[in-house]
Specification:
alpha/beta; 15% strand; single chain; 3-stranded mixed sheet; 364 residues; disordered N terminus
Amino acid sequence: MPVGLANPNLHLGPPRAASNLLQFFKEDSQNCSLPPLTSSQPLRLFCYSVVMPSPSYEVGLIKYQMGQRAGIFSCDSFAVFSNVSRLDDAPEIPVVRVIHGPMSVPRGDSWMRRMTNGDALNTPLFMHAWKWFADTKTHEQYDWTIKLDADTVFYAPLLRLTLADRLPISFATSWQCDHAARANPFALTFWGDWLPGPIEALNSEAMKRILARVRRCAADIPPDEYGEDIWLSRCREEADELHEPVASCIPLGEKLLQWAGVPLGSTTQCDLPEYPTAALHPFKSVEQQKTCLAMVQRAAARLYHVNVTEVPEGKGDGPQGSEASASTFVGLRRRSTPAPVSCGSVWCWKESREALALYGSAVS
């Protein structure tokens, strides 16, 4: 059963069949895996996006996601970083102004350069967000810190299911399998050590280690020559080469991301596999996101045995009509969307704050 929900007694039906990827790791003694979490072990997720202000299309997407409790707003706590303190077309969204200057960035000048260095060379913008984490230590209050592109369709309850399950490990360090633990530094990857740009997920220890290396990496890897996902991957690899492990990889494939249209230009489709997919990319219009999010929410409803679009405020119907507290459904969509509340230096929903307090996070 998934964890990270305030009510550990929520029934989720019979165990799901293991994916082929996870079964491979279970059967191959030469590979490693992390055991599933128990119901007493929470999963606290912090999600953020770096958003360009109007007239960027990103504002409309973020506004829609907030109304649906999707994207970064489906996590326990969230932050929107920008170069303004208020989004003109979405004043209800709290913004952290960390960038002081324009957010326009150059793009790769050739197909090959876009493949090797990234399309948008936006690492200097993300350096401001990473400095904010280094200064506030917000990531230390959460199990995972997740960066999402605005055009990524994401639903945290599905990622919780995957993270609570047995996880395959692809070691990039000298750690031994029998000493692997979830407290070790890990990054979620698509395959191998590829950290995909639409969703970049690092656990608390990995965030701590990579933030300690950002300044040193900036001296060796010019930030203005790379997209932030490729720069971050190279920074991690460079530290590994110096025998200072940053993070080992948890390769999740399409359980982490369905990615169409980039970089080969194929048609974007919302194609859900049989197992839960945490993120889909790219969907650059609200209409595209509506269609895909509806499919994702239906998938979540089946897996959680609740009607995601009909959960009443303050309680939920379990499979046998039992009532649960509002915090049981942290991250699931509501009929109404209240304003977010303060969670320390960031924001969350009321039931998320109650759950975080239950789990011992510092929230005010």
